[in-house]
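Exercise: predict the structure of this protein bound to zinc ion.
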Amino acid sequence: MMKWIAPSILSADFAKLGDEVRAVENAGADWIHADVMDGHFVPNITMGPVIIEAVKRNSSLPVDVHLMIENPERYIPDFANAGADFISIQVEACTHLNRTVHLIRESGARAGVVLNPATPITAVEWVLEDVDFVLIMSVNPGFGGQTFIPNSLNRIRELRRLILGKGLSTRIEVDGGIKESNIGAVSEAGADIFVAGSAIFGARDYAATIRRLKEKANTP
Ligand code: DX5
Ligand code: ZN
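Solution:
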């Protein structure tokens, strides 16, 4: 399966966001990852739909909106209307996960579900058929630049087994602490899509960094 890189704009320079998204697009990024935080589900506040609109005006890449918010059903249509191609929701924030996944699809976006580092993988077992991808958090969500939690590798393997056991081809995305030194192992464990914030936007040469990340993801 093709391995994709999704730079997280959380680590971009917000004062020149248009330049930043154009730069990572030219540097070979596959998706743009946008981290939406509400100050309730996570201890940080970031961006709303207007930022997604601004990103869409400056890039033709698919935009992957990661909602780290309570009551996501309240805002899903707004993010879809702003141009989100993919919308993912934290299972811990959803009492009616199946309903909320379907709301994403009815709003016109593709749907993903996200698991925090201590949430059992089986929490997504009965929505696997209804989603395009599952996102495994490999740090506790809230901030960029944190360290990858090693047992995330076992969690990715367990999720890959669950997906294969059901005969599905659901993609696995991983988010948090991904860098050149661990992307090979994360890829080998079964991940397909790699979010990277500080590893890309903290580098001087975006193109060289994305090229090396892709090489390492493809040849673990
Ligand atoms: C964490 C966010 C991540 C974060 C990744 O709450 O969901 O997308 O920005 O940043 P790095 O790659 O720096 O860990
Ligand atoms: Zn994220």
